[in-house]
Amino acid sequence: MVGGLRLRGIRKSFGAQEVLRGVDLDVAPGEVVCVIGPSGSGKSTLLRCVNHLEPVDAGFVLVDDSLVGYEHRDGRLFESSERDVARTRRRMGMVFQQFNLFSHLTAVRNVTLGPVRVLGRDPREAEQEARGLLARVGLAAHADKLPAQLSGGQQQRVAIARAMAMKPAVMLFDEPTSALDPELVGEVLTVMHDLAAQGMTMIVVTHEIGFAHDVADTVVFMDEGVIVESGPAEQVLLSPKSERTAAFLAHVRRHPRKEHDHA
Amino acid sequence: MLDTLHTLEVVRRRGIVSRWGVGAVLVAVVGWLGCTVAVSPNLEWTVVGRYFLATPVIEGVGVTLVLTFATLGIGLVLGAALAMMMQSRNPVLSAAASGYVWFFRGVPLVVQIVFWFNLSLLFPTLGFAPTNQVVTPFLAALLGLGLHEAAYLAEIIRGGFLAVPRGQVDAALTIGMTRATATRTIVLPQSIRVILPALGNQFILILKGTSLVSVIGGGDLMTRAQQIYGQNYQVIALLLVATGWYLVLVTVASIGQRFLERWAVA
Ligand SMILES: Nc1ncnc2c1ncn2[C@@H]1O[C@H](COP(=O)(O)OP(=O)(O)OP(=O)(O)O)[C@@H](O)[C@H]1O
Ligand SMILES: [Mg+2]
Fold it and tell me: What topology in the membrane does the UniProt record assign (chain A) (predicted)?
């Protein structure tokens, strides 16, 4: 089974502000990890460091034992060439809060672009597969629409299909439902639920405590750039060891959608 | 009373000045000006008619068009490169591009044209050939116009890039594209919509800007008009010939622009 992740000693600063202050995290193949934590605690930055969208200042990320973004030579880590970084990145799909669909391309073109342009797949085969993927996320009838013609929930499902088309070993989700109207959250969570059930390795930053409870194997609570607490979902969500975790969970349960209204 | 209100005719306010009044004044002023010029004994309409389609004038129109398209071509290629450099995370590249834009946008176009024309004063020879043989008036004109235009187009193209949400580039990177591929397949096609209207405007500016090359005898429409009135002293008549042609070219360009925009939005 593939899709294991190991993060060690991840540090990242923006200017004088240290946003990640030494993060260690292990994700086993097929494991689903939900990351929760207050706004500004560094959750998005952590995900962006995992696939080298943000280069780390210290520490490293391993996907199935290969380094992300760096090469190990002469006792040092050298940043890889852009081409090599891109090659490693395709092993990790990413889904963003704001969907980030390519707005000049139809849903199906959004999904085929990676396989055709990056993997050099045959366009017709890629399209067939893309339509299959779109059908799996319940969008068979919307494949030829532009993003602007789709609802937020539909756009996010296209974004998931786009990431899946690259056959990634790991999927990273950054608050995939935070920008959605409440009635559209369910359809996206259902798709993610299915992915988890099929054994996809996933890291999900979310404020959906219910989803974390149902789907996550492990829940990680982050605050101020460090992992404060991590453990089996049931334990962290229902009987947290840290007071900060407990306070955060109480806050989120009181204001279920407040935490992400900053979007 | 209230139940009959809806049957009454509505009279809208017209504003303080009436349309008819303004129209009448305009027609009178423009008509009077036009007539005085048209019937002036000093303006020979037969001269205008004779030269409008004369060979040197037509050749001049040809040179003007070639200069315009070549300038646009140089400006687009160089401007796109500069715009990408300005976006680069490499501080040397972005500073170099910003410096280019600062300089070539800041120096008057006519100065640049005259400079390239007189390059031989600085470097008498280029390689083995005398500079004056390599840098012909046409090439000097092209260099001056193209390098100047690149600075403007760089800013316009950069503005177009900025109109594409950054998140889409992130998304492109996560499906394994390099930055260059993401720029070509995601950013460029979407920025065209923002760039195109400004580009049409710029095209018309270049079209008229080419007339500046007449200061070095660049052979364009304006140069030819000057050469002809230098011999027959019919200055106004030949300016009218040139004006007529510029208006024709600008009109065609404007219509082309509307079509292009409609195509780009579709
Ligand atoms: N590109 C950047 N440049 C400068 N500062 C940044 C950048 N990205 C993030 N930050 C800062 O890093 C801190 C952590 O940001 P991050 O987006 O990782 O938090 P988060 O936990 O995802 O929060 P949220 O729940 O609001 O999404 C914030 O203070 C943010 O302002
Ligand atoms: Mg975030």
Answer: Peripheral membrane protein
Look over chain B and give the mean of its residue pLDDT values, rounded to a whole number.
Answer: 90
Give the model's confidence band at B203: pLDDT under 50 very low, under 70 low, under 90 confident, else very high: very high
- Chains A, B: CB pairs < 8 Å: 66
Give, in words, the CATH class of A1-91+171-180+188-258: alpha beta
| Residue-wise pLDDT tens digits, B116-164 | 999 888 888 888 888 888 888 899 999 999 999 999 999 999 999 999 9
Looking at residue A208, what is its pLDDT? 92
Asked, for residue B249, whether it belongs to a domain, the answer is yes
The set of long-range contacts for B102-108, using a CB threshold of 8 Å and a minimum separation of 24, is B103/B151, B104/B147, B104/B148, B104/B150, B104/B151, B105/B148, B105/B151, B105/B152, B105/B155, B107/B148
Residue at B210 is within a domain:
yes
Q: Which ligand is nearest to the CA of A17?
A: 1
Total structural domains within chain B: 1
Q: Which residues line ligand 1 (CB under 6 A)?
A: A 14, 19, 37, 39-45, 262
CATH code assigned at B162: 1.10.3720.10
> A143-169: string of b/e by CB count within 10 Å (b at 16+)?
bebebeebebbbbbbbbbbbbbbbebb
Helix (H, G, I), strand (E, B) or coil at A24: strand
**Which ligand sits nearest to residue A173's alpha carbon?**
2
In whole angstroms, give the CA distance from residue B98 to residue B94.
6
Structure tokens at B100: 């280019």
Q: Which atom of ligand 1 is nearest to the CA of A48?
A: 18
For the entire predicted model, the pTM comes to 0.81
Chain B contact present for A98, CB below 8 A: yes
A106 touches chain B (CB under 8 A): no
pLDDT of A262 over the 50 cut: no
